[in-house]
Write the structure tokens for this entry.
Amino acid sequence: MTEDRLGNLQSKLQQFKDSLADISLPSCHTFTKCLSAWEETLASHLPYIHIPTLCLNDCIPELVLALAALGAQQRYETRTSLLLFHAGKTIALERIRLTRLRNKEAKPTPGLDQSEAIIQSASALLTLIVLATWSANAELVDEAFELHRPLMFCLREDGLTDEDEMSNQDWSLWALSETRIRTKAMAFCFLNLHTIAYDHPPVLFWHEVDLKLPCTVREWHAMEEFQWLLARQEVVNEQRRFPESLKALLSSDGQTPQMQPAPSPLGNYVLLHGLLQRIYLIRQIAVTPILREEDIIILHKALSNWATTWQRTSESSLNPRDENGPIAFTSVALLGLAHVRVHLDIGPYRGLAYKLPAQIAAALAKVPSPQIKHTKSAVSALLYSIHALSIPVAIGIEYVVHTQAIFWCCQHSLGSLECAVFLSKWLYAISAAKAVQTMNRSEEYVLHCLRQVLTEAVSSADWGDINTSLWLEDAFHMGLAVLRIWSRVFSNSSAWPITVTIGKSLAIYADTYENRGLDM
């Protein structure tokens, strides 16, 4: 952000001066710091803004304010973040109100056509929703829900299908077309995260999003037109459409779908959100908390198909710092959550933004323990839960605690919470039922894998007064260890408050779990 660009932003804000009467914008230096934080650390997690062709002078002001608000929170500057958030929200809602009235004052920023202005409005609203979603503040989360309607207005105004052929000649036209796809796809994903995190009913259904899946990372990351042209030359076929691809994953013909071309990391991420929504909808019509066996088989097969597709994607990686970005890594965290949701629906019990940690812990204690089932699907959910735990242990628990190096925002902490609760409740159920003797070979393998992770975890952190010598004693203490480790991982401060709330809730829930065990 330069002084000239700040002046340009301020001039654009003049038409909204009545709405912004009580808001004073930060300095040029603060804007620069906040926008840099967004670009350097958050843009790769939210790849719907095309940085190589981004020009701040061509952006509507609420988009600039929203990006800066997100960056300010990443810098722990909550006061500045909230100021920018409310300024951006005020302008975004006013622009949409004027657009709806077809008021001449609602003409888009000079240089933008109406369609581009609408998609920028959608991007601004989506960015504001991202910020509010992870606040752990009930009022701000409610504001995120309030933005559903204006966001849906923008998406439907521009259309939830893409009819344009991708250009192989004009980089800027291609970037605009791909930005449309990614903004709408990421809007679907974040609206679905509201369902996952807060048990909010779906606002946008997968079958409505009739878009091509997002392009490859190499195309999106190309910094110059010639690099983009080289990347486009390698594209034999354009990406498949989202509904078609999701139906292929859900196919019950017993064959793993051969998707050509393989989806990009972001494409896989969008598909996984489609499967998560499918799990949610099946649970809504289920008569009991336990899904029908035929539903479990179909969902397990779909998740297995997704995992195979993820592995076939050349840009996939389990390294959060991979050059292709962290989306593939984040997807695996959500895959574990999806497997857990097939067997245990924790969502309605949490109330993450509306309860104190002690209340959340008490609610988690009331979640029914999963039935001890000797099935492939149940074993998969357990192994993915152990895999989630193994990541911070392998990297180093203390390192993760003090840097939050692998956990951006809330998606990883959400997945970790559900995996921790599921795994600990399964271990508790085994201990309470004295069911260790009846385990099959797969479940014995689950305990073997968990013992290896717990053994490494003992030396990976400073556990203080916690008696880690008991952790490997039996299934009950292994469950307690799982909760202690996860609560330690999320015990330190984070730019994203909901992560801290999850850590505190798990710590209290671990105490409850331990006290229950004393009565066994």
